[in-house]
Please model this.
Amino acid sequence: MIPIKLDIQGLYSYKEKQTIEFDKLTAAGLFGIFGAVGSGKSSILEAVLLALYGSTERLSDRGEKNSMVNLQSDLLLINFEFSSGRNNVKTYLARYAAKRNSKNFEDIRTAEHTFYEKVDGNWEPITSRAEEIVGMKKEHFKQTVIIPQGKFREFIDQKPLDQAKMMKELFGLERFDLSFKAGILLKSAKEQKIRLETQLQGLEDFTEDILTEKSNQFSDLKIQSAEASVKLKSAESDVRLQENLRAKNQQLLKFRTERESLNHQRPEIEKQRQLHSEFIKAKTYLRPVWEQIRDTKADFEKYKVSVIDCERFKIEFAKEVTELEEQEAELKKKNQERSQRESKIRDLKKVIEIQKLETQRESENSTLVNLQPILESKRQAQKSLETKIVELESEAENINASDSSDLAHLISSSKEWKTIENQLSKIQFEAKEVDQELNVCKGKNTALKSSIPTNESSFETWIATQKTTIQELEKQRDLLMQKQGLAAHVHLLHTGEACPLCGAFEHPSPLEGDTESGLEQKTSQIQDAKLLLEQTQASKAAHNELVFHLENHQKNLSSKDNQIQDLKQNLAEIKTNLSQSNIDSQESLLAKIQAQEQSNQTRERLSQEVKSLRKTWETERRFIDQSEKELQHAQLKLQSVLSNISSKKEEIRDMAFCKQFFSRDSSQIQSAITKVERDIEEALQLLEGKQKHLREIRSKRDINLADLENFINHRDESQLKLQKLNSDFESLKIQHGFTDEERLIRLFHHSIDAEKVAREINQFDQALAIAENRIQELEAENGVVDFQEQAFQELFSFFEELKINAESLQKEVHLLDKEIQEATAKLAEKKLLQADFAKLEIRESYLKELDNMFRGSGFVKFVSSIYLKELCNTANVRFMKLCKNQLSLEIDDNNTFWVIDYLNGGKRRLLKTLSGGQTFQASLCLALALAEKVKALNQADQSFFFMDEGFGALDKNALRVVFETLKSLRHENRIVGIISHVEDLQQEIGVFATIELDPERGSQVSYSFR
Model:
């Protein structure tokens, strides 16, 4: 993970939005972030953790997030842009935002925590979390990438089990936990064995003898089935011949019945034939003329009615046109007076404008009258203010001002006096607590020593004895496991056959007996011994820790005594300095401070009154200037209004008409104007409407006259055509023999379907002819007329018996053939299952041995220890260089860190016994080694390492060596960032960011390269 940019707003001391440009800092390989204590340096790491994992090092996100938000901010916003993944080629954005509740200041709403990935230059939201993107949990991230303040030596202070667990989670060592996989394979083998046993039980009924017996039965049945098939074919030929004669006999009877039925229908068909002939004649020759006569009569009546209507409309249109022409003449006369009426309207509008100007003139006169007395009053008040300011300035000059430096010194001495007394009380209380803790540690240490057995001199000898006991027990267990493994193969030994292990042909004394109970007993003894060993090691670690705590408490108690002496000396110096000013107690000091402050306050009060009066004087001065300008403006405006009134009166044309309206209200004049304008407009609209209506009526009159002439012509033509059609219809009736006109009309209205009737007559003729022909043909064939149904039924019954017998034999042959095929397949399957079962028994025995070997997580612990030792070897490369080859790191089988002291003959001691500076060097080397392993695990081309503080315990020489080591990391493609308040570090680091705390704006960020 490589940081690119970090935006912080509203977090702790970051009131305004600040941007940390990591891409420019990381380009140098080694960079720093410097600032005073409390400036907000460590908040940068807090912001990174909050953006990635949703919680910080100091406060959790759930119950304490209201303390994260700046007290002067309503919004907490963090945007962290970084690259990650293989070779850090992907770019991500982590965003964390939270707002205050507008109704409850203490309540912070649920935060929005989202992640984005840059795809083709655009940010797209993703569902992945930091654990998936970065590849590690928050706890591991704080130990390998970002190390917060006070957490630098957290890794070496972890318990061995926690270190092993971290290695397992960080490097995925769970893949070496083979016990679960071995158990799954063993369980699968047992399940397969049970399944095969079940399948073999279902195949017990299939044997070679049964298969031979069924084959003999199959040969006999096949011969019997062939004989029955020959008899069946002979009987089937006779049945097919009789079935053909039977079908023809049934057809003969059917056609005779059909002929008799058709003869009964003949009279009705003849009637239909005659009606159909007459209907066709009437429809073809007479009906068209009859329909034309009917249509012509209807047209004649229609045109006759239309002529009557048009003559009536002709009279009505003539009357309406005359009335409209008279109304048009009246409206034209009224519109000729329009110009005179519009001229008077314009004069009345001028009257309204003059009335408005008169109102404005009165307003300006009133303004002039009101402004003049107010302006004179303000000028008198201005002179009184000037006199009072001079008096207050003179009074302030007569008050003696105290020396500000003396007052500041007294206030500082008072605060320091109180601070020293508070510190003295606090340190005395802390010294008392340390003394109590020292006594508690001594008691615990005595109790731990009493737990050592009487035959052991120390914890070390006790642990060595216990390890020897465990080794002996494990050897005995291995011997029992070998015997058990050999005993599992005793059933394979047969007299005269070679042993599968040694090849011998004689087996005089094969292993016997049950070793499983003895093996379980040994395993239980080993577990008890290991548990006792772990308890002993824990007691030893607790003893070492108590010794370490005793030394620390003694040093701390001595330090507290020295601090108490220093504070008492400082307090005596303060009292000596104050005695020169005749001050012998805190009360007299406070009284003198109060007297000087009151003198200063009085002078300050007078000064503030002068400033306030001057400000009032300036305000009044501006008001007087503004009033004078308003007075001049009102005078000019009054002259302009008088000029406009005179001009408007000259524009009126008919003053005699307008004089009566000057005394009226402007709303009444406007109402009269509106009424006249509306009357003029209505007269114009009425004239246009009448003219339009007159044109429409004249057009309708002309259309009606044309229609009248057209309808008269059509009426006369229809009358002549009707006379001709009546004459033609009478001639056609005589020609086709229809003397009765009523009967002819009924034929016209008859609903007979001519085509259907013709088709029915034709079908009747065809059916009668077919029946006669088929009867003659069937009577001429031999055997059809003499066919006997009883003889046919006897023959058919004999055929059915033969058919049933043949089908039964054929089914028996088919079923027996299937049984033989199934038995053959089952016997082959049975042989394969028996072979698989034998192999599975051997596999099960091997898997049982593997399951016993990998039971528990011992193999994973072993691999974790290898990783820790590899980590220790990598860290030693830098650690030995930092300590000038005087020390090196080592880790034992229990994952406990030790130090090899080459100045004392290469003897080893606990890592916790190192000094503060040496502990920092060891922690730095282990953290860098761990980060290097993580870099290799993630296949990254660059890695990032950020530490907060940690350099205060180093002297200048050690600090120089550490920085040479950190600078050399640039050649390994590593990026290192440092947060510190130590000023000397800025001389060692060329590229850095500076954090300053502004009282108004909060933490502000600046850079060395700007």
Notes: The first helix runs from residue 22 to 26.
